[in-house]
Design goal:
The complex is a heterodimer of chains A (about 110) and B (about 120). With about 110 residues, chain A is mostly beta strands. In chain A, strand 9 and strand 10 form a beta hairpin. The N and C termini of chain A lie far apart (about 35 Å). In chain B, the strands form three sheets. In chain B, strands 2, 5, 6, 10, 11 and 12 form a six-stranded mixed sheet that branches. Chain B has a four-stranded antiparallel sheet with strand order 3-9-8-7, with no helix packed on it. A two-stranded antiparallel ribbon of chain B has the order 1-4. Chain B has about 120 residues and is an all-beta fold. Chain B is globular and about 40 Å long. Classes of the chains: A mainly beta (about 110), B mainly beta (about 120).
Chain lengths: ~110, ~120
């Protein structure tokens, strides 16, 4: 069964460092998303991406964040200068044209120290 | 205002019994979708069930069924014959149309279910 894959599964980084989280969405999907979940809290929308551009973003997705689909298969989330409060699980998700569901990857745990 | 409300932070159920997890939603979009996801302690998000706003029948997927009451704006998840492996966090989510034609998915705060042997 096709699945969304994310790397790394866990990353520890120093405050102020840049981090890139990688995702390979399901191959025939058109819509891509990043969500985050701070430990013990709900899943929060960060950004959606369609047709090689951002289509929606939340207030969390400030200038420190960027997304890219560099090669038609990978979908990356970059955090330019990490802060302690960026520590969270980051989920990538992808969805087909129908929008009947989105499928999540297993998440990337980011710990900023 | 909360768009997705899950009022039960935690629930217990005896193994083999049925359990209902509550979810209410708020939207002015006539076309929307409702979802339930399971998050076990390992952290991944597992899709369980989907209900479209125009669907006449309640959705069912194996032991999962969605009790969709449109007028009350509720989309409760019913798990029949609970198993120990059902112990997890359960999130209700809603899909709305986004401003640029893509969809936004909004999640509730979750309900932690513990199945007792």
């Amino acid at each position: 069964e096709p699945e969304v894959t994310q790397t790394p599964s866990h990353q520890v980084t120093q405050m102020g460092q840049e981090v890139i989280l990688r995702c390979v969405p399901i191959s025939n999907h058109l819509y891509f998303y990043w969500y985050r979940q701070i430990l013990g809290q709900k899943v929060e929308f960060l950004v959606s991406f369609y047709n090689n551009e951002i289509s929606e973003k939340s207030e969390i997705f400030d200038d420190q964040f960027s997304v890219e689909r560099p090669d038609g298969s990978n979908f990356t989330l970059k955090i330019r200068s990490t802060k302690l409060e960026d520590s969270a699980m980051y989920f990538c998700a992808s969805g087909g044209r129908s929008g009947n569901t989105i499928y999540f990857g297993e998440g990337s745990w980011l710990t900023v120290v | 205002a909360q768009k997705i409300t899950q009022t039960q932070p935690g629930m217990f159920v005896q193994e083999k019994e049925a359990v209902t997890l509550d979810c209410t939603y708020d939207t002015s979009d006539p076309s929307y979708g409702l979802f339930w996801y399971k998050q076990p302690s390992s952290g991944e998000m597992i899709f369980l069930i989907y209900q479209g706003s125009y669907d006449q029948q309640n959705a069912t997927e194996g032991r999962y069924s969605l009790n969709f009451q449109k007028a009350r704006k509720s989309a409760n998840l019913v798990i029949s014959a609970s198993q120990l492996g059902d112990s997890a966090m359960y999130f209700c989510a809603m899909r709305e149309g986004g401003t640029s034609g893509t969809y936004k998915y909004i999640f509730g705060t979750g309900t932690r279910l513990k199945v007792l042997a």
